Amino acid sequence: MVGRRYFKGRNNLLLTIGAGVLITLLTIFIITPILGLFLRITFDQFVTSLSDPVVLNALVLSLFTASISTFVIILIGTPVAWINARHRYPGREIVDTLIDLPLVLPPTVAGLALLMAFGRMGLIGGIFYDFGISIAFTTLAVIIAQIFVSVPFYIRQARASFEQLDAMYENAARSLGSPPVPTFFTVVLPLVKAGLIGGAIMSFARALGEFGATIMFAGNFQGRTQTMPLAIYTTMQGDLNASITLSVILIIISFVIIAIVKFKLRGYTPR
Prior knowledge:
The protein has two domains: 40 residues; 214 residues, Orthogonal Bundle (MetI-like fold), CATH 1.10.3720.10. The protein has twelve helices and no strands. Helix 2 packs across helix 12 and helix 5 crosses helix 7. The protein is globular. It is an all-alpha fold.
């Protein structure tokens, strides 16, 4: 009996040490490249690079397009997520699969697909081009690319939030005479808002970091389509400080976003 306890305690100790070593190695592996960026540039160089037109234009454009794309995703994704969470209809699994598809598609494939759809010779873009409207290689193309790659993040989180919400709240409101639409806005949304906010923040972060689909579909034009990831790629070849500055800004924004999401969703359970 004593021997079994000894070996059990010893095994637990070895597992604890092993887990600690793995966590330490993984943490070092992740934090080393990040420290490399932060230590490579001084604060004065960072401030100076912020005044660089390339950096400033990319920062403003990225925040603008990511905000617009996130707003559109919320408008479209919220009702879609609710419908898929609450209703069964023919082809729902196919719809879910198509929504998740951008998660696994290589960004360059997504960009080429968007170009074939919305380019001047594309399925939809060709129609607009006949009326003198060009979509590809414009700021609108940046927003479309960001929506395409980011929408799954929001819809997945929103659907999970709706599915966890007990339907009795909706049923109770309807039994009291509340129509479906007012019930959705006054009862459902307030109860799942933390989950929706978390999904929106993650979509914003994904849109902010989008590179492959954007460069393929929107190009790399300063002040028009050159977002921060594209500017990092461009300036790295001539102005390393500007590239590092943009990278540091993205790291800080990403860290803050993840921290906010974890805070908002900590212990979150729809009522």
